[in-house]
Amino acid sequence: MDERLEKALAFSNYRVTIDNRKKAIKRRYETMSVVYYNDGVFVADPQTISFIGTLSVDSGGATVLDEKDRPIDIPDLLAFKQTLLEAYHTAMNEYADEMKKLAKARDVKKAMDW
Amino acid sequence: MVMTTGVAFFAYNNSKIDYSKLATLAALYVKRHMANNTTCLITDEGTWEWMTDTVKDIRLDDAFDEVVLTDVVHPTNIRSNYDSPWTQFKSEFKNSNKHRVLEYTPFDQTLLLDIDYIVQNNSLDNLFNTDASVALFHDAESLAGLRPGPNEQRLHELGIPMLWSTAVYFDRNNKLTKMFFDLWAHIADNYDYYQFLYGFPGTLYRTDYCVSIAAHIMNGMTDGDIIEAIPGKMINMSQKDDIAKINSIDDWVYLVNNRMENWKDSVTRIKGENVHVMNKRALGRHYPYLTKLFEEAK
Lengths: 114, 298
Prior knowledge:
Chain A is an alpha+beta fold. Helix content of chain A is 66%, strand content 14%.
């Protein structure tokens, strides 16, 4: 095989592996970002955190739509914001750690911790 | 009133797959990760005897809190299995009484899991804190993050969406729950008719089809959320994928088979995610090592 093609194919396989791993790390982040609160399902993403933060400036409680478009009563917005922030930080810190480890992995074996 | 909660598994052995060992492993993972971790094994006398004779590397009491013995004659249901693209075998698939979990379960709130669904985080615990009557996965993706094939997105190319019966949460005190399981039983009893009506393929009795049709009917013949969706997508390891290496109890490396070009595999590593490990023989190959890890982690 042409050496140029051989090298490119080896790199291509490496990229597929890295991409698979990135998707798995992202999926784990998404799982960890889900927050159940008062029978509602929320995602601790920047939009939700900002919105709850904005609402909490003017009022103690409010009704908001969850991920399934159901109105959910949130009696204590500040406590809910805190819950969202905790989920966000936990998920994001793990995401960042795993991505850093992956960035340092220069071959498939290292990426897989083989 | 205190509600009892727990996780149930069905395991009926056949001559090709030792479901009892896989159920033991799945229960150990539930014990490790979930707070609602009282477990119940639903099985038959033959499988239970086999299990008590052969499961030596782990104490069954560590895996199961309750055992329900059933006496059901399962109709013939032959399933074609793969173990990587290169090995194919047929086996008897005994799933005809899955809908009867409502009468078998000792819990008020039950999470029914297939024995090849490996729980590696506590996200499913949240279901027990909701007011859902029944919840299942409405969507799935492969280890490589791809959507399922067209025949597993919908029952028919113009048909209703596919729901997954791999993980079924239910609250037995809810009237809708009873209606759902009664309807599932009715669809199972009239499977040929519903196959004709909904146009799903194959000769295998699949409970995924039953729950999809039951949800569709209960939603007023439209899409809807009367049967709630478990958040996220179920991660499916295909029967043509393989487990390449176990780094630790919750850190596995997989070979991901290329659907279009079966001679190609890529690798991926999944840590702390729940995975539907459909290649049961691959799971069986790693059972001795995994149970050893569980014993060491005690």
